Amino acid sequence: MDDKLLKESYFIRHAKERDYTVLDNTFLKDNELSWKAKGLFAYILSLPDDWKIYLTELQEHATDGETSVRTAVQELIDLG
User: Fold this and answer.
1) Confidence band (pLDDT; 50, 70, 90) for 42?
2) Can you give the pLDDT at residue 1?
3) Greater model confidence, 8 or 24
4) Closest C-alpha among 2, 45, 1 to residue 20
5) What DSSP designation does 31 have?
6) What are the tens digits of pLDDT across the range 9-39?
7) 56-19-41-53 Cα dihedral, nearest 10 degrees
8) CA 57, 75, 77, 40 torsion: positive or negative?
9) pLDDT recorded at residue 7
10) Cα–Cα dist 45/48, whole Å
11) For residue 14, what are the CA distances in angstroms to 3, 7, 17, 24, 61?
12) Helix ranges (DSSP H) in 1-80
């Protein structure tokens, strides 16, 4: 990616009233976690509290294949 593009980028945030997730920033700032694991964890936190994790179900909601999902889940388990 072009460094110039990164310097000129900006983000627009919109106020949300429904269908959003509040996240603790701690795991997002954890340098030991990959971006893949952070994204997967954010998705998992958006699910209902009683939801059970099934790798096949996770695979259905993104472009990552079985190996990618499995390694992200294992990374989250390994790092607590």
Assistant:
1) very high
2) 56
3) 24
4) 45
5) T
6) 777 777 777 878 888 889 999 999 999 999 9
7) -30
8) negative
9) 67
10) 8
11) 26, 22, 10, 19, 24
12) 3-8, 25-28, 35-45, 55-59, 66-78
The 10 Å Cβ neighbour count of residue 34 is 14
Which two tokens mark 17? 């009233």
pTM: 0.75
Angle between helices 66-78 and 35-45 (to 10 degrees): 90
Residues 6+ apart with CB under 8 A from 45: 21, 23
Could you give the 3-state DSSP secondary structure of residue 5? helix
Q: Which pLDDT score is estimated for 3?
A: 63
Please work out, in degrees rounded to the nearest 5, the angle formed at the alpha carbon of residue 22 by the alpha carbons of 14 and 11.
35
